[in-house]
Design goal:
single chain
């Protein structure tokens, strides 16, 4: 399980979403980035994890339907808040247009639904 924790701070624990098979496409995306790109995202995770806020909408923004985006240029990492001071990062993509692609938001919503269902059943955090 610890491999899916992206950052553990005073205010929030930020986790990579993983599917039923234990695979995390968003973590794989992150691992494919350059060191500079990784550090930009990790700085945003650290700020949110420790202080509970990122005031700059160019770096963290509400996208509707309880989905939020960490925005280290040119990438977007979609996420949602969950009880227990958790932020679950669901999917990522490289921004190529002004608006959030509907397909990416739908993917985040599906991941959130799957996460919530598996947590409710007690199967998400099984050892």
């Amino acid at each position: 399980m610890n491999q899916f924790i992206a950052y553990e701070g005073r205010c929030f624990t930020i986790e990579w979403y993983f599917d039923d098979d234990g695979k995390s496409l968003v973590l794989e995306y992150f691992q494919s980035l350059s060191t500079v790109e990784k550090n930009k995202l990790l700085y945003l995770f650290q700020t949110m994890g420790e202080f509970g806020k990122i005031r700059n909408q160019q770096k963290f923004n509400y996208e509707g339907d309880q989905i939020y985006a960490f925005k280290p240029m040119p990438h977007r990492f979609l996420s949602f808040f969950f009880t227990g001071s958790r932020i679950i990062v669901t999917n990522a993509f490289e921004k190529k247009q002004q608006k959030l692609p509907p397909r990416e938001k739908e993917r985040a919503l599906r991941c959130r639904q799957d996460y919530e269902n598996r947590v409710k059943k007690g199967s998400y955090y099984e050892k």
